[in-house]
Amino acid sequence: MPLKVAIIGRPNVGKSTLFNRLAGKKLAIVHDKPGVTRDRKETEARLNDLKLTIIDTAGYEYSNEDNLEARMWEQTRKAIDEADVCLFLFDARAGVQPYDEHFADILRRSHKPVVLLANKCEGKLQEDGRFEAYKLGLGEPIPFSAEHGLGMLDLYDALKEHYFEDETENAEETTAEDETDNRRPIQIAIVGRPNVGKSTLVNALLQDERMLTGPEAGVTRDAITSDWEWHGRRFKLVDTAGLRRQSKVSDSLEKLSAASSRYAVNMAQVVVLVLDADAVLDKQDLTIASKVLDEGRALIIAVNKWDIANKKEAIDRLKYRLKTSLTQVEEIPTVTISALKGEGLDKLMSAVLKIYTRWNSRVPTAPLNKWFADTTASYPPPLGKNKRRIKLRYITQAKIRPPSFFIFSSNPEGLPDSYLRYLTNSLRDTFDFGGVPIRITVRKTGNPYADND
Q1: DSSP state of 209
Q2: What is d(CA 49, CA 9) in angstroms, rounded to the nearest whole number?
Q3: Are 136 and 101 in contact (CB under 8 A)?
Q4: How do strand 41-47 and strand 50-56 relate by DSSP bridges?
Q5: Under a CB-based contact definition with an 8 Å cutoff, are residues 71 and 212 in contact?
Q6: What is the pLDDT of residues 59-117, one digit of tens each?
Q7: Are the C-beta atoms of residues 115 and 85 closer than 8 Å to each other?
Q8: Closest C-alpha to 39, from 26, 53, 28, 52
Q9: Which residues contact 429 (CB under 8 A, 6 or more apart)?
Q10: Exposed end of the chain (fewer CB within 10 Å): N or C?
């Protein structure tokens, strides 16, 4: 089984940099501003032959009030409880600080194995800070640099002591998993404007306070992935930072958060756009929805806070905005929910599975070309640039996810977009592609006699 490793330390000591180093890619936002990480972020990783599950955590800031800092600490405490080993980072340049000592005391009382890393230890100038860490009572501090990858072999040796692999158990577990479900999990990105209830929705689905929530707008800064199972089907739920209008984003940290959210959309199969029932499909919602569809993702609209909404007004506005402002894909599934009360969640997940199936659909060749012949016969293509009618010969489905089709023609020049929209809408109606983005490309067929004398 993978060794679960929590990366612990006060703000701005390099925890997210180490997380990215072990993950082998930039999954966590790294910024000079202290306290960037708020939720605990988890991913699979490898260090040589060691299989790891690594957890990035918020920097510890003590608070005995019910505020954001207290909720951040609760997330860190859960990471310590779940971990097999804790990597405790301190800044060797700054030396041991009061919060380092307080954190060390918490880790000692947790009775979890601790590996002490003297980070930012690129030269001899940091030696004094490293030796000072002996007073923390956590053993020998390993000279380390998460940014430059120094000390990774020593870290490997320290983790190896706590790593035990039961090969029989792993083999049985793998076989059982292959027999019950050999499909990959469906990745769902939860997106929307700030403070519409995205993290609350993820927590309601997981039935766990996994995501940091609160009345403050913009609590989530990074895309956080959680493994989950619903009715025997596996999912990866990705909570994202709220997306504001680009013209309003000037802070470099918010730009990184927005980039992380966009990356989550690009990697997802299904995107759930969460709306506030009091402001359904405003301009920013429409911008997000359009970008999701342009990326070819399957889209579901979840109208949140339905328990306190003016229902008739919200439904009328939603229908009007879908009809007039989001016309590129018809029949986008919409579900009304209350994330706070856990209402409408089964209905939402049923819609996710239905749209995912459509997004993965492949139309058999025979019915596809019969539809194509009937459709082009009832409404023939218009005249082309050379005043001759454009001949569309046949169609084939090039790929799924999203459904993409090639139409072959000997003279496709000048085929208007309006005719392609006609074909797209007819294809969607005939083969039940409602709510799914469809891509149709017209390609020119070669002349079979061109190379003959």
Answers
A1: -
A2: 26
A3: yes
A4: antiparallel
A5: yes
A6: 655 556 666 667 777 788 888 988 999 999 998 888 888 888 888 888 888 888 999 99
A7: yes
A8: 28
A9: none
A10: C
β-pair type (224-230, 233-239): antiparallel
Note if the pTM is more than 0.90: no
In 3D space, the residue among 345, 82, 349 whose CA is nearest the CA of residue 232 turns out to be 349
Q: Is the Cβ–Cβ distance between 347 and 335 less than 8 Å? A: yes
CB 272 within 8 A of CB 348: yes
In three-state secondary structure terms, 34 is coil
- Tell me the one-letter amino acid at 337: I
Token output for 155: 């870290």
Token pair of 300, please? 């579901």
Phi/psi of residue 131, nearest 5 degrees: -65, -30
Kindly state the average pLDDT of the residues 148-175: 70
Query: What tokens appear for 210 in the block?
Result: 């996994």
Number of residues assigned to the chain: 453
Helix (H, G, I), strand (E, B) or coil at 325: helix
Query: DSSP H helical segments within 50-148, as ranges?
Result: 68-82, 98-110, 127-132
